[in-house]
Amino acid sequence: MEVTSLTLSSYEMMLFFLMSVIFLTAVAQLYAPRFTVFGFILILASLGFVVLTGVTGDLEMISVLLFTAGVVLMILELFVVGAVLGILGALMVMGSFLLIGENISRMAVFLAISLILTAIEWVIVVKFFKKKIPLFRNVILTDSTSKEAGYSSHDDRSHLVGQNALTLTPLRPSGIIVFDGKRIDAVSEGAFIEKDREVTIIFVEGTRVVVRTL
After folding, report:
1. Cα 52 to the chain's mean position, in Å?
2. For the NfeD-like C-terminal domain, which residue ranges apply (predicted)?
3. The dihedral of CA 188, 190, 196, 200: what is its sign?
4. Which residues have C-beta within 8 Å of that of residue 76, sequence separation ≥ 6?
5. Distance CA 107, CA 100 (A)
């Protein structure tokens, strides 16, 4: 049996503390406009977690691989439409924590509490402080092309508002609909819409057509 300088209870408390700090500072840094003290603390906490579990022999290569792959998938999710990569990446990261050491139930409790604290932090950041992920400002076009902004279109589709159409392809959220025999590029109101579903056109701005299911 390996001997450590920490008692078991102190070791468990340190694992829980570092795990919570990693999750909490990751969310705080994600919503920060630039690299901040939260990012610095996140790096230190991650290194501390690796060193602590490595010294005690609890850290295994499978945990490292899962964590690394999960983080990569969550980063890719920021640039890919859909939530599959993000969900898979999050599950891989959580799984990497569960596989540390031999006491999975202990790590599961630590992980659950850390996630609850992180969820509370996320609600406060988004709902009360109205924060948005700064990266989205660089990859999403937010400029308005409305008539009030001085834009006009040779293909005015404002008359389509209120009309029903059929999805020719799945909308994830963008795709193609068919109205009066014509193919039209469209975007769902937010949710995924399957192929061959009847939709109604609720909003048109320039060439942007927004639909929702009936």
Report:
1. 28
2. 159-212
3. negative
4. 85, 89
5. 8
Phi, psi of 166 (to 5 degrees): -125, 135
Classify domain 147-213 at the CATH topology level.
Answer: OB fold (Dihydrolipoamide Acetyltransferase, E2P) (2.40.50)
- Give the pLDDT mean for 13-30: 91
Q: What is the C-alpha to C-alpha distance for residues 84 and 74, in angstroms, rounded to an integer?
A: 10
pLDDT at 155: 61
47's tokens? 């290194």
Q: Which of 23-32, 60-69, 105-114, 126-135 has the lowest mean pLDDT?
A: 126-135
- The residue type found at 123 is V
| DSSP letters for 12-34 | HHHHHHHHHHHHHHHHHHHTSSS
Q: State the pTM of this model.
A: 0.59
Q: Where are the alpha helices (DSSP H) in the chain?
A: 8-30, 37-55, 61-77, 84-98, 104-123, 134-139
Q: Average of pLDDT values for 190-212?
A: 86
* In the chain, domain spans: 8-138, 147-213
Task: Centre a 10 Å sphere on the Cβ of residue 46 and count the other Cβ atoms it contains.
Answer: 16
Q: Cα(124)–Cα(118) distance, rounded to whole angstroms?
A: 10
Q: In one letter, which amino acid is 96?
A: S
DSSP helix/strand/coil, 76: helix
